[in-house]
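Progress against Task 2.4 (sequence-to-structure conversion) is shown through the following example record, which the project officer requested during the mid-term review.
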Amino acid sequence: MNEDWKAEEIELLKKIFKRKLDETDIRIYMLLRENGKMSDSEIARKLGISVTTVRRRRKRLQDEGILQIIALLLLKAANASYADVLVKFKQGIKIEEVNEFISNAIRNPRIYEVTLYIGGKYDVLLRFFEGNLESLNYHIEKFLRSSQVVERYEVNTAVGSPKAWYKSFKIKF
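C-alpha cells generated for the chain above:
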C-alpha cells in the first residue's frame, strides 16, 4: 500500500471517528482489514506496541460493535452474478408492511446486504447474488413482484468490485 495514501486514509479516519478511534485503533483496524486472521502478537510487532495493548484495544472495539472481523465471499472471483437493486416503496403503506419487506429481505439467502435510505429517489438497496445472470434476474423479479409495497425498482447488474470496505481487489474481466 502506498505510504502517502495510507497516511491520508489514517488522517481521514481520525477526523471521521475522532471521538471513538485514535491512530493506534485505526492502525489495528487497517492491519486486520488486510488480514483478519492476523494475531495480536503480529499486530503488536508491526505497530511496535505491546500485545496487551493490542488485545485490549481490539477487544474494546469489538465489544463496542465498532470492529467486526468477518469473511467475505469475493463474488466475481467465484464467478457469481450479482446486482444492486434500488427499491422505492409505494406512498401510504403501513410501517408494518415495510418492516415485513425488510425482514423478508434479511432472511433471503440470495440478498447479502440491505441498506435503508432516508429521503431521496429510493428507499432501500438490496444486493443480490446468484450462480448466473439468468437465475439472478429470475430471483430478483420473484422477490420484488411478490411484494405489495414496491412501487418501482432499478436493477444494476455488477461486473466487479475493484474496491469495497477500503480494500482493493483484483478484478478479472
